[in-house]
Design a protein that fits this description.
The protein has 786 residues and is α/β, with parallel strands linked by helices. The two termini are 41 Å apart. Strands 1, 2, 10, 11, 12, 13, 14 and 20 form an 8-stranded mixed β-sheet that branches. Strands 8-7-16-17-18-15-19 form a 7-stranded mixed β-sheet. The chain has a 6-stranded mixed β-sheet with strand order 23-22-21-24-29-26. The chain is globular. The protein contains 27 helices and 30 strands. The chain has 3 domains: 170 residues, FAD/NAD(P)-binding domain (3-Layer(bba) Sandwich); 218 residues, Polyamine Oxidase, Chain A, domain 2, CATH 3.90.660.10; 308 residues, Spore Coat Polysaccharide Biosynthesis Protein SpsA, Chain A (Alpha-Beta Complex).
Length: 786
């Protein structure tokens, strides 16, 4: 890539900027690009500070040797899936070619990768044995996923994946039968080695959290490819507009965000820089060293997430031979047994579980061996690069015989990946004091350890709000544009200055953790200021547990108490939803900042959602106490509530009141009423205390001309996929008393059907499948606004 060192040294680093970005890896470069592309910042408003003399972070391509000047990747080397991957779009834009190696992830789904050769010593396993091996591994993967999704994980919750596999092969009937096969345990152990190669951690350091979803684990669908020209070409193009803002060889030692007017950044050479905002895009490893000091100290929840996150170790050893002596068409080669002859004085052995064929990729006689996790660190500390490369040579002798040629040159490269707990990425990406933003791989759970994580995290964090002057209170949102969505650009999200801060809490169930809950977290949940799941059990996904799934009212009460106890003073609004909802957070925020809402939200309890009417038979069923039923009928002629499926939003005063009176007998807290739906139960309770869903409800604005913003049906799915408007809602007769929607909307606004019921400012939808939620994410940001 271009040498920026001389340029950067000549360029003066001024003392004041609107935004300072620390760290010129992919996340920092992406964030800085988003700042300049927003149109709100010029090059004089932004600086990008990098401690090294080069930019790109772990995206680093270099020539293998003087005699063989082929590009090799010191760090990130793969395009992990081409469907929906931003790098596929960038490659098309910049004219960067890919070379497909496997139609799917070859580490997770090796059976999809052609010419993935398996060896036992010098004997190559037959195609039938290889296929059998992949079938066994798929079976084991399904078993791990089932355990990961089980309510109590059958007692395996705290065990490592290595220990869980030991238990399964000894107790699971299907796997016990597999174990009767030839070399079955060795072939299943290969599965663990491949998982380790993908995760960057050993099976002893992994737990079941990683297996809740196994079809995709941090990658995108589609082909897995390499970039013959080098991954650094992306950095070349992305950094092109940034030449005037990049400053290399600038090491930051401290960030002070305690003052009234922004942040003060201290550099190790004595210089200081002030800025309105700072985006910390350094590596997680650097944050863990403690060499970057914050004043005041970061919140304990943030420092805890930093400490807990793991840095996966990954060492690549490249060996050049004078000629190709292995099958030229092979993609990967793996030994099912550790037959290594190389060891140090303490008997520590070097074993490469997986070898990649560079000849297939770049037409050069190079093999790449991989070492993973703590083993990589230990071997790197105990052996020289030449000794490590010689171990790969010895392993190849075991495989192809003693007469293979001696290697000509070697290269050994170490890099790290990120693995952290489910909740930690959301914590890591949270802004501190509305001035200190964080970006990087660790701040994105879906793609952690992959380049997509750094790119998306940086692009989102690069959307700093424009200056609004003293007392600026409301969000300013960038309008949606169809061409932006079509290009896959994610700069549609405009960060808020402060109000409204929205915490989302989603009620789910253990069987949905890897599907519906994951879909919420991957889509609209990312645009909440904080997202929490509550279920019938706790695990890496769920932070709070209520009661069994059928007692939704008690589960909701437990969630309300938890949120109230821990977060009531940190957020302005609290959005409760089910796990099959889809929420357009931008529209919700736009509604909450309307003057009639924003000027009263801190004066009186407010709750808003889609109103439904509970029928008389349901009233009689749920109110078991006859005295209470008589009192109820003396005050109200119908039971109106906010549908909990698409969700309802409440302010802090509303939540305070709810939690205060939850045990009141008028809140149907008697055991006979525990099965009442949570949405109807909350409404019943609050109406006794003066919070009437008739009043504070989102209804038709004259500019919209529609009934509601919250939808309790499949409307979103229908809007996106209906072949004609007549398919939307499959409309019943408006006067049909037996239709549930007609019945539940009676006396509270009537029934609006088909497109008449779809407001441009629609907030929420219910009964959305995981697949449609994921599909709707890019579509909704365009379609709903249009």
């Amino acid at each position: 890539m271009p040498d920026l060192t001389a340029e950067a040294l000549e360029m003066p680093l001024t003392s004041s900027y609107r935004v300072a970005v620390i760290g010129a890896g992919l996340a920092g470069v992406s964030a800085t690009n988003a700042l300049l592309a927003s149109g709100q910042f010029g090059t004089s408003d932004v600086c990008l500070l990098e401690a090294q003399s080069r930019i790109g972070g772990r995206v680093h391509t270099q020539s293998f040797s003087d005699t063989l000047p082929v590009n090799v990747e010191v760090g990130a080397a793969w395009i992990h899936g081409t469907e929906g991957n931003p790098f596929a779009k960038l490659a098309q834009k910049f004219g960067i070619a890919f070379k497909e190696i496997s139609p799917r992830n070859p580490w997770l789904h090796p059976g999809s990768c052609s010419d993935f050769l398996l060896f036992e010593g010098s004997r190559q396993l037959s195609d039938q044995q290889a296929a059998e091996t992949w079938e066994w591994q798929d079976l084991l993967m399904r078993k791990l996923q089932a355990l990961a999704r089980a309510a109590d994980r059958d007692g395996h919750g705290d065990k490592s994946v290595a220990a869980v596999v030991d238990d399964l092969v000894a107790s699971d009937p299907q796997l016990v039968e597999v174990m009767a096969g030839v070399n079955a345990r060795e072939r299943l152990n290969l599965f663990l080695r491949l998982i380790e190669a993908w995760m960057g951690l050993t099976a002893d350091d992994l737990n079941l959290d990683a297996f809740v979803e196994t079809d995709l684990m941090g990658d995108d669908p589609g082909a897995h490819c390499i970039v013959p020209a080098g991954m650094e070409r992306f950095i070349d193009h992305l950094s092109e507009p940034l030449k005037d803002v990049i400053h290399t060889n600038v090491s930051v030692s401290a960030i002070n965000y305690d003052g009234p007017d922004g942040v003060v950044i201290e550099c190790t050479d004595g210089r200081t820089v002030t800025a309105d905002h700072v985006i910390v895009a350094t590596s997680l490893g650097f944050l863990q060293t403690g060499r970057l000091h914050f004043q005041p100290e970061l919140p304990s929840v943030k420092t805890g997430a930093i400490k807990r996150s793991k840095m996966g170790q990954y060492m690549k050893v490249l060996v050049q031979f004078p000629e190709v002596f292995w099958p030229k068409q092979a993609t990967f080669m793996a030994q099912i047994q550790d037959n290594s002859n190389a060891s140090d004085c303490n008997g520590r052995r070097i074993y490469f579980p997986l070898v990649f064929n560079y000849y297939l990729a770049k037409n050069v006689p190079i093999l790449e061996g991989v070492l993973i996790g703590d083993k990589a660190s230990e071997i790197s500390a105990s052996f020289t690069d030449e000794e490590i490369a010689h171990a790969l040579f010895l392993q190849m002798q075991d495989t192809f015989g003693p007469d293979i040629p001696e290697p000509w040159s070697v290269g050994a490269y170490s890099c790290v990946t990120v693995q952290n707990a489910y909740e930690d990425p959301n914590v890591l990406k949270q802004t501190v004091a509305n001035r200190v933003l964080f970006a990087g791989e660790a701040a994105n759970l879906k793609y952690q350890g992959a380049l997509q994580a750094a790119y998306f995290s940086g692009a989102l964090r690069g959307l700093i709000p424009p200056r609004g002057g003293a007392g600026c209170r409301y969000i300013r949102w960038r309008p949606f544009k169809a061409d932006v969505c079509a290009e896959g650009d994610i700069t549609w999200r405009w960060c808020c200055l402060q109000y409204p801060r929205v915490l989302c809490f989603v009620i789910t169930y253990s069987l949905h953790h890897g599907t519906k809950a994951r879909a919420v977290d991957d889509t609209w949940g990312q645009r909440c200021d904080k997202l929490i799941f509550f279920s019938n059990m706790t695990d890496s996904i769920v932070v709070g547990a209520g009661t069994p799934a059928e007692q939704t009212n008690d589960k909701n009460k437990a969630a309300l108490r938890y949120v109230h106890a821990n977060f009531r003073n940190d957020y302005d609004w609290f959005y409760k939803a089910d796990d099959d909802s889809y929420v357009v957070m931008e529209n919700l925020r736009n509604y909450l900042k309307r003057p009639e809402i924003a000027h009263t939200y801190n004066r009186e309890p407010m709750q808003m959602g889609h109103r439904l009417n509970l029928g008389e038979s349901a009233v009689n069923f749920y109110i078991k106490n006859e005295t209470l039923k008589t009192l109820w009928h003396s005050r109200w002629d119908r039971w109106v509530y906010h549908s909990g499926g698409p969700g309802y939003v409440m302010n802090r005063l509303d939540m305070n009141k709810i939690v205060e009176i939850l045990d009141d007998w008028m809140c149907l807290s008697d055991p006979d009423s525990e099965t009442i739906p949570d949405d109807a139960g909350i409404s019943f309770c609050m109406m006794w205390h003066g919070v009437d869903p008739h009043i504070h409800v989102i209804t038709a604005a004259e500019s919209f001309g529609t009934v509601s913003y919250f939808y309790p049906t499949h409307l979103l799915e229908s809007l996106l996929h209906a072949s004609s408007p007549s398919n939307i809602f499959s409309p019943p007769a408006v006067d049909d008393p037996n239709n549930w929607y007609v019945k539940y909307r009676r006396h509270i606004g009537g029934v609006h059907l088909q497109l008449e019921s779809a407001a441009p400012g629609s907030v929420a939808f219910h009964n959305i499948s995981s697949a449609h939620s994921t599909f709707a994410e890019p579509e909704t940001t365009c379609s709903i606004q249009q």
